[in-house]
Every structure is written in C-alpha cells, then in structure tokens.
Amino acid sequence: MTDRHQIRQQIRQARRRLTTAEQDAAARTIAQRVAGTPHLASARRVALYLANDGELDPQPLIDWYWSRGTQVYLPVLHPFSPGHLLFLRYAPDTALIANRFGIPEPRLDVRLLLPKAELELIYTPLVAFDAAGNRMGMGGGFYDRTLSGWHRGQGPRPVGLAHDCQQLAAIPTDHWDVPLPELLTPSRHWRW
After folding, report:
1. Residues forming the annotated binding site for substrate?
2. In angstroms, rounded to a whole number, what is the distance separating the alpha carbons of residues 119 and 46?
3. By CB distance 3.0 to 4.6 Å, which of 16, 42, 128, 142 could disulfide with 54?
4. Count of CB atoms within 10 A of residue 40's CB?
5. pTM for the full predicted model
6. Are 97 and 108 in contact (CB under 8 A)?
7. What distance in Å separates the CA atoms of residue 42 and residue 91, rounded to the nearest whole number?
8. Domains along the chain?
9. What is the pLDDT of residues 170-189, one digit of tens each?
C-alpha cells in the first residue's frame, strides 16, 4: 500500500468500523495510560482535539486533565494564515462552532489564545502511523506545520493518539512530514 490517498481511505474505513464499545474502551484506556505516565500526567498546558471521522476520542483524557486542573487547548484553523493552527483554551462551558471541515472548535477569541510555544504537549490525531514514528494525517499539513521545529526546542512535544488498526508496516513520507517521538494506542505506548 503505497498510494497515500488509498492508505487514507482504507485506514479511515477501518477506524470507522470500530464499534461504539470498542471506541469507548480505547478512549478510556488511553486516559488510563496517560494517567500512569509521569511526564504526560504532569503537564499543565496541553493541546488536544475533538474526535472526528472515527479518530480515537480524547474526551476521557480531556476530562481527566480538567479534573487535575490542567489547562486544555483545542486547535482552531488560523483565520489569516491558511494551513496553520491556533490553540484556544477549552473548558467544559466553551461554546463550539463547526469549522470549514465540520469539526467543532472554540469561537476565535484572542483572550483564550495561547502561543504554541507555551504548550507542553500537543496530542495529535492521525490517519496512520508506522513502527518508525512516521505519522500520516488527513493531507492538509496542518499538524506538520504546527510541529515543525519541535525537536529543536521550538515547540511543544507531540504525542500521537491512534487505534491499533491504524498501524502500517511503513508509511510513504515526504520531506515536510514530522515524525512523532511518542504515540499511544490502546495496546501500546510507543517512544522513538
């Protein structure tokens, strides 16, 4: 499987085939895994996402972080810089609107904005990953742009979240793709 479009279609179908019970169990397992991992559990400012299209649902993890007083931020499409993300504070009472992809995000309010450099972790959604830490997203490059430079100390540490069915033997990569240093699935905690 080398065609990126074909890979995206097949893996998205695989994760959409997961039952509600399987999705719920995976989401709870990820939250438990983070709770038992000191460097993840101790973070005070984290970015997460709201699940879309069968992605691993981080809501139990969001709830867990909120219960600890951790500040949670969500990605918002940058209104003036196409292809880039901003991060806005997310609380239980935050009003959400659908972005152009139909994904809920906080309404843009500069008072809720946190510069990316002030985040400690960015939990990233993905379509597929491989055992070398390569990540394939939806194809827009939003997270690759956001994560570029993190390994040189120019941003927060990325942590991928995925279902086990999203792993491939190898993913075709391009020069702009940003590999992950860490990824969590229900069955494993990967570190590279």
Report:
1. 50, 55
2. 6
3. 16
4. 21
5. 0.94
6. no
7. 19
8. 4-191 (3.40.50.10420)
9. 998 888 888 999 999 999 99
CA distance 99 to 114: 19
Measured between alpha carbons, how far apart are the two ends of the chain, in Å?
23
Structure tokens belonging to residue 180: 């992950």
State the burial class of residue 12 (Cβ atoms within 10 Å of its Cβ: 0-12, 13-18, 19+).
middle
Structure tokens of 159? 């942590």
Query: What pLDDT score does 176 carry?
Result: 83
- Residues placed in the known binding site for ATP: 4-8, 135-143
Block residue for tokens 């008072």: 111
Which residues participate in the annotated binding site? 4-8, 50, 55, 135-143
Kindly give, in sequence order, each residue whose CB lies less than 8 Å from that of residue 105, ignoring residues fewer than 6 positions away.
50, 74, 75, 76, 77, 88, 96, 97, 98, 99
